[in-house]
Amino acid sequence: MFDLGIQELIVIFIVALLVFGPKRLPELGYTLGKTMNEIKKAFQSAKSEMEKEIDEVKEKVDEAKKDIKNPLELKNELFKDMPSLEDLRIDKHIEKVAKREIEKKE
């Protein structure tokens, strides 16, 4: 966890033994262990809450993706009732009218 070797741990134990004494050392170890356990639980709780929030956001994004239509489908839907460009060309329209007039005269 902190990359401490055996030698470092022995030095820390000897310093703690000298500072706190043999009577208070077990009590100090118990308190330290309990505190570390509470910190670990708090981090796990925060992590699980963030994962839940992330999952909720992912679900909302997935729902939004389903609601978005394919751009080509949307274009086809929007322009389905519009005349084609071929129908809008004036010269083609004039040509059709002229052909009809010629056919009427014949």
Write the layout of secondary structure elements.
Blueprint: H1 6-67, H2 71-78, H3 85-88, H4 90-105
Cα-atom Rg, whole angstroms?
A: 40 Å
Helical run tally: 4
Mean pLDDT: 83
- Major sheet size, sense and barrel closure: none
Main attributes of the structure:
106 residues, mainly alpha, 0% strand, rod-shaped
In short:
The chain is mainly α and 106 residues long.
Give a structural overview.
The chain is an all-alpha fold. The protein folds into 2 domains: 1-68; 70-106, no CATH class. It has helices at residues 6-67, 71-78, 85-88, 90-105. The longest helix has 62 residues, at 6-67. The radius of gyration is 40 Å and the shape is rod-shaped. The model has no long low-confidence stretch (mean pLDDT 83).
